[in-house]
Amino acid sequence: MTTNAPTAAPGAQAAPRRPLPWRRIALHTGLLAALLVMLYPLGWLLATSLKPADEVIASLNLLPSRLEWGNYTTALDGVNDVSIPRLLTNSLLIAGGAVLGNVLSCSLAAYAFARLRFRMRGPLFAFMIATIMLPHHAVLIPQYVIFNQLGMVNTYWPLILPKFLATEAFFVFLIVQFMRGLPRELEEAARIDGCGPFRSFALVILPLIRPALITTAIFTFIWTWNDFFTQLIYLFSPEKFTLTLALRSFVDASSQSAFGPMFAMSVIALLPIVLFFLAFQRFLVEGMASSGVKG
Predict the structure, then answer these.
(1) Mean per-residue pLDDT for 77-89?
(2) Assign residue 120 a region: left if phi > 0, alpha if psi is -120 to 50, beta otherwise?
(3) The dihedral of CA 62, 66, 72, 74: what is its sign?
(4) With contact defined as beta carbons under 8 Å apart, do 106 and 220 qualify?
(5) Which residues have a Cβ under 8 Å from the Cβ of 159 and sit 6 or more positions away?
(6) What is the rounded distance in angstroms from the CA atom of residue 231 to the CA atom of residue 273?
(7) CB burial class (10 A; 0-12, 13-18, 19+) of residue 157?
(8) Which helix (H) or strand (E) holds 158?
(9) What is the pLDDT of residues 58-75, one digit of tens each?
(10) H or E stretch including 46?
(11) Of 104-108, 231-235, 274-278, where does mean pLDDT reach its minimum?
């Protein structure tokens, strides 16, 4: 007795083979291992902030033997008679001013380079891009001399004022690349309706470059919040310290190094950055992707 096995029709394509289960398992295992490696410093910071003082340095265990919530109580008291709310306010004031300055000045400079026609536009744009390679420490002393002569040392102006002068060439270049992908017909239509360059920028261009502006805001906030060296140079009054400077002062304020409260304050200082990034991460990816493919 013979049976006729079904045969595939001539020209029909075979169904795609599904990947073997062990390959998917190996891929997921590798991704999880990489994720654990990247998250280990954060986990170590959280665990160390709850360790007793005698286990911070002496013990190599990740988890503490007991939870020392007093570290956070001591950290919330602040340093040098300056409370945590005051330190947070100082940090937010500097970071917020830097974000506002970079978004306004860099977007205006980018609009000039991307849309306006003027003499020496190409060489000036190339010179601006070349300043990205200039080390920050090379201009720190001249800037300090200028701000010292203006009487602005030990104030927040040296940390905020340069941001309103489009000194961040990286963000100018980022926004320029984004603007070059926008159709010029929109500005021509606005010009026909009677809009000048500033009204075209405010009413037409500015709403369309929101992803690039949010990307600028995120990086500016993170870099300014984590800035230690520049703040250390210009600020020396404890009541004007930021959380970044307070971390250093926390160890120096006592005769012994209080590492537990210091790590607890580090966790507190990390929370605004994490929340800010989580709130705008979608726009960050969109802005970076759009700026990279247009131009």
Answers:
(1) 85
(2) left
(3) negative
(4) no
(5) 94, 97, 98, 224, 227, 230, 231, 234, 235
(6) 18
(7) middle
(8) helix 157-160
(9) 777 788 888 888 888 888
(10) helix 21-48
(11) 274-278
